[in-house]
Amino acid sequence: MARARAALSSIGLSLSLSLVLGLGAPQRARAAGEDAVEDTGPRSSRPAPKMSGEALLTFIGQADAHVVVVPAGPPTPALLETGDSIIARLRAGGRLRAVLDGQRLGDLSEASDAEILARVDRRGGAMTIDRVLIVRVAGYGADQVVYADSYTRGGERYAGFVLHAGETLAPHVDPAASLEARREVFEPATRQAAANDVVAGANDLSDAERSYLEQALYMPRDLVLRGIYRDPLANEETVALFDNPALVEASKRREKTRRGLTLTGLFLGYPTVVISAVMIGLSMTGEFGKGFLYANLGTLSVGTLVCVGGAIGWGMQPVLGEPELRAEVERHNHNLRSELDLPANIDAQLASEEGGPLARRPGWSSSLAPLLDAEGRAAGGVVSWSVRF
């Protein structure tokens, strides 16, 4: 794993808007690629990733196989174009029995690998499926990253790679490959890589590294993020990940107190204040006597105190402050590295040249991609706008 890197080298908050332009009756169509792209945000001069059919075949690991290539994630033109490109290159090699796409699997914009594999197994029926290649695309424009995992139909991970824009995909290294696979799959790809000064295995991502990327915690600011896709975690979710029962219990008590005070102030304190104020206003007419006025003044005082308690609950801080939370995040990652037998500098090894998986690149972009029907004719187009910050 000389140059394998994290999949989301340029992940940030993103807002996207897509407009589909149809040229006729609805037809089964998909994006054929981006015809034009204008990006006013920060750009890189690096070209798109380069993937040969020979190198891709090594991540399948065998010839004469049935393969399903599944582009997963939001169906952006870049993802669809990458998926189509991988399918075309695998088919062009002529050494696989069948290369299928994942269109029958439904919406995969938020599906995990496990969910995708379950759909393949359920909808594949009696069909022979030797490998499932799940492809994801992260980043923007010339900062694009292709991330892929190859699985057996049973869900066992065979191999994976991370490929940044401008890189040439290096063939996978499989010491356990059969003699037939070495002769038909790995040796041709290795010779081609050597001719292009590409080191075999340079983009490989081991199971341990994959597990680390899935489970590691990151804290770019005051928010804890988890895994490859940088899912934000609530404070109680973060604390639950730490191997500290006392801390977990203290966090639960704090959260229970916070919610109790806040809800009491909201649903008991504020209504009491409003009703008491109305009653005091009515008592000013002189129709109810002073006893009624004093009783409502007392109720107003109690309601006010309950409201203050609700405000205190709303403003209660978590058990762990930011410095302590950062220390616990680092302790979690340290224990994870030890468990997976990974070096202490694994984060640096998996980081991108642009600042690592947490790099944020503000900017906006627009793109236009044609939609083609099953016969290759133009059926419409997709205009996409993205704002990232």
From TrEMBL:
<feature type="transmembrane region" description="Helical">
    <location>
        <begin position="294"/>
        <end position="316"/>
    </location>
</feature>
<feature type="signal peptide">
    <location>
        <begin position="1"/>
        <end position="31"/>
    </location>
</feature>
<keyword id="KW-0732">Signal</keyword>
<feature type="transmembrane region" description="Helical">
    <location>
        <begin position="261"/>
        <end position="282"/>
    </location>
</feature>
<keyword id="KW-0472">Membrane</keyword>
<keyword id="KW-0812">Transmembrane</keyword>
<keyword id="KW-1133">Transmembrane helix</keyword>
<protein>
    <submittedName>
        <fullName>Uncharacterized protein</fullName>
    </submittedName>
</protein>
<feature type="region of interest" description="Disordered">
    <location>
        <begin position="31"/>
        <end position="50"/>
    </location>
</feature>
